[in-house]
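EI: anyone free to look at a 379-residue chain?
SC: sure, send it
EI:
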Amino acid sequence: MTGLKALTYFQVGTIVALLTGLAAINLVRLGEGVHADPAALQTSDSAQRYIQTGESQHWWEFLVKIVPDSFFGAFVDGDVLQVIFLAVLFGIALKAADTLGEPLIAGAQRLTQVVFKVLGFVMKAAPLGAFGAMAYAIGKFGLSTLTSLGSLIVLFYSTSILFVVIGLGGFLALYVRLNIFQLFRYLKEEFFLVLGTSTAEPALPGLMRKMTHLGADRATVGLVVPTGYSFNLDGAAIYLSLATLYIAQATDTPLTITQQLGLLAVMLPTSKGAAGVAGGGFIALTATLTTLGTVPAAGIMLIFGIDKFMSECRALVNFYGNAVATLVIAKWNGTLDHDRARLVLSGQPVPDVPEAQPPVHAPELVDTAHQHLSGINLR
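SC: here you go
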C-alpha cells in the first residue's frame, strides 16, 4: 500500500512540475527571435552520443528493461531501476519467508550502516573532484561557457525556486504542517553535497538517515527515498518541459496547446526512462523530442553548452522533492512522529532513533529461561 501511495504521489508531482515548466516558458517565450536553423546546427562527438542514446530509447523501454538478465548484472551495470526491482523482489521474498529470513534482514541492516559510513567518508572529498572538473571546463572553453544562454538558466532556476518554495513548501505546510525553510536548514549538509557533485545520488545515505531521525518510520524511508530517486524527478520534469518549448520556439516550430499537452504525455514516461543514466536529463530530452517528432532533435545543440550548469538545479530540486515526498507519504500512512519532527526542525536536541534490533524467537527465550532456572536452587 505504501508503494502504491508513493507512485501516485510521484506521478501527480511530475505532472505539476511539467506544467510549471510549460507555463514559465510560455509566459516568457525566450526562444522567440533566435530563428535557429536545425540543419545548420553542428553536433559535437559527446553530444552525438547523447543524441544516439536518446533516439534509440523508447518511452516503454524502462518497463521492459527493469528486469535484469541476471541477479548480479544490475549491480555490475549500475542500472538503478533494475537494482530497485531486485531490492523490492528480494524484500517481498524475505517477508514471505517469515522467521527464516529474519537473520538476513538483521544482517542487511548492519551491513547498510557500514556501507553508509563508507559512502559518507568518500563523498566528503567529492566536491574537490567537482571543482577540478569545472576548473578544467572553464580553462579549456573560457568564461563564455558560463554566460551562454544565461537568460534560460535564470528562468530555469527561478521557476525551480518558485516550484520548491511555493509548490512543495505550500503543500508541506498545509498537509504535513512543517516549514520548508526549516527543512532547508536541516538538510544543508546534503544541499552542499548535491550542489558540489551535480547529482543527488551521493546524498542518498544522508537523506535516509535524516528522514528517519526527523520522525518518519524506517519502512517508509527505505521504500520512498530509493524509489523516488528514479520516479520522483521534479527538477528533471521542469527542465524537460521548459527546454523542449524553448527549442521549439528557437527553431520556429509552432506548437498548439493540444500538441503541448501531448508533449506532457510523452514526457511522463521518458523522464523515468533515463533514470540512473549518465547525462540522464539530456538523454530524456532527446528521447522526448524524437518520440514526439514535431520538434527537431538537433535543436538540443542550442542548450548543450549550458546543460552542465542546469544539472545542479535539477539535482537539488530532485533531492528536495524526495525529502518532501518522504514526509508526505509518512504522514499519509500515519507513521510520522509530528512532535519529533517539529523539535528536530526547530534545532532542539532530540535522541537518535534506536537501531532496529533482530527479533528474539521463542526457542531463544526458552533457552534463556532454562539457563536462569538452572542456576536457581529449588530446595
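EI: DSSP finds 20 helices and no strands in the chain.
SC: 👍
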